[in-house]
Amino acid sequence: MSDVQEATNQLLDVNLHENWSSIQVTESGPRSESEHLQVTIGATVPTGFEQTAADEVREKLGSSCKISKDRGKIYFDISVESLAQVHCLRSVDNLFVVVKEFKDYQFKETKEEVLKDFEELAGKLPWSDPLKVWKINTNFKKKKTKRKKINQNTDSHILDYYENPAIKEEISTLVGDDLASYKDEKDESSKEETHPKMLKFRVTCNRAGEKHCFSSNEAARDFGGAVQDYFKWKADMTNFDVEVLLNIHDSEIVVGIALTEESLHRRNITHFGPTTLRSTLAYGMLRLCAPQPTDIIVDPMCGTGAIPIEGATEWSNCYHIAGDNNPLAVDRAANNISSLLTKSQIKEGEVSWGLPIDAVQWDICNLPLRTGTVDIIVTDMPFGKRMGSKKRNWNLYPACLREMSRVCRPGTGRAALLTQDKKCFTKALSGMGHVWRKVHTVWVNIGGLHAAVYLLKRTPQAFVHPSEQDGERTPW
Questions:
Q1: Cα 77 vs. chain centroid, distance in angstroms?
Q2: Buried-state track 400-434, b at ≥16 Cβ within 10 A, e below 16
Q3: Of 169, 317, 331, 475, which sits most exposed with the smallest number of CB within 10 A?
Q4: Which pTM does this prediction carry?
Q5: How far is Cα 275 from Cα 328, in angstroms, rounded to an integer?
Q6: Residue 141, Cβ neighbours under 10 Å: how many?
């Protein structure tokens, strides 16, 4: 490896595990003690995909996982040194560290008594370890943000690397600047230890259930006031350092501290459209189909490309095709693919020759693909709300399912199709029983709309075009 490449790799290495070793704990106790902390992490996931997320946690972290009664949440235990890996999970939206869980909380009969209990609760909770985890997580995010800025500054250098050997001096300077700024950060942190700044916080209450005599705002207000008195923090609803979560579901209460400021599902998309799918939901749909190496995976109505981009990121040993009939959507998908490629180049510190993904403009009812060549189809079908119309869906859905059955491999092909227009889809599917068999239905919530993901299996029956059934032969 040349000196330039080595310097570039040192500067641009954003591997979470290596960054982890440089994070120091400023709470009580040495670093080695904090490394062995065992904590419970809570995560919000797309509703209906709790089991998918639990499977990913077991597979990647080796941790047992509990699915909450409150839909869209899972809980799992980790050692704090695995926190970086938790942030790499593809199926979770938001993360928080659990302070305390009450599985069967006994609410008093009157509102005043319940709120009084919430006030007294704040001083009785085991805050110490969760706050250590929050501190480690915050330091980690600061380093990650700083490296992102440096990466953006050196982006053009990476792309010009092979043509410009003189980059060595510039990269070395940037490495030196990075080390110097890290020293400044350490000096600042030591100052903060001597003169700690007052933290700002807010309490967010999420409440579900019909037997509560109080509102979410009342619970957040009274519990937050007690937290403020206990820690002497300053309340700030917008520019806060710490977000304390009070999750109430029937008689279950979970108090936590947020570890993510914005949902992780925004990770891959930079060019949005009116119906851009969350990356976490895209991952869940793909995982339902259990992709295997060398599978050809197609999203025939890709929009801005959330599904194939997620697929190319997680299942890079498959080939992904993103297609749409709208040229603007295809352009946005292509731009998102380009952005992902740039991120990949920065992360690896070298020029990448591409990703296993292509974007194509086509007609969903007449795909330019050979019969029986596609292994998996995953797509977000028009709901008839923001895109298309429910009236048009009555013609579109049967035509889509017919064309999908043509290109999908008989016997082994599968499809995960998302729609809110369940009545229309069920009717269309009922006429396709000879080519599609429904395996499973996952009920999900999409922006307040009750939708479903249908997992279908392609039957072994060969595709026969309707015109051939009438004695005509149409070449495919």
A1: 20
A2: bbbbbbbbbbeeebbbbbbbbbeebbeebbeebee
A3: 475
A4: 0.78
A5: 13
A6: 14
* Cα 141 to Cα 309: distance, rounded to the nearest angstrom: 24
The predicted-structure confidence for 104-151, as pLDDT tens digits, reads as follows 999 998 999 999 999 999 999 999 999 999 999 988 766 655 555 555
Largest pairwise CA distance in the chain? 87
Neighbours of 299 (CB within 10 A): 30
pLDDT, tens digit (0-9, with 9 covering 90-100), for 172-203: 444 444 444 445 555 555 555 555 678 999 99
DSSP 47: T
CB 75 within 8 A of CB 68: yes
**Cα dist. 287→56, 306, 457 in Å?**
9, 14, 14
What single-letter amino acid sits at 176?
G
Cβ neighbours of residue 89 closer than 8 Å, sequence gap 6 or more: 43, 53, 56, 57, 60, 61, 264
DSSP for 250-280, please give it.
Answer: TTEEEEEEE--SS-GGGSS-SS--TTPPPHH
- Bridge-based pairing of strands 94-102 and 38-44 is antiparallel
Q: Say whether pLDDT at 157 is over 70.
A: no
Quick check: 143 and 137 in contact, CB under 8 A?
A: no
What is the token pair recorded at 151?
């990466």
Locate 199 and state its tokens: 């933290």
Q: How far apart are CA 294 and CA 296, in angstroms?
A: 6
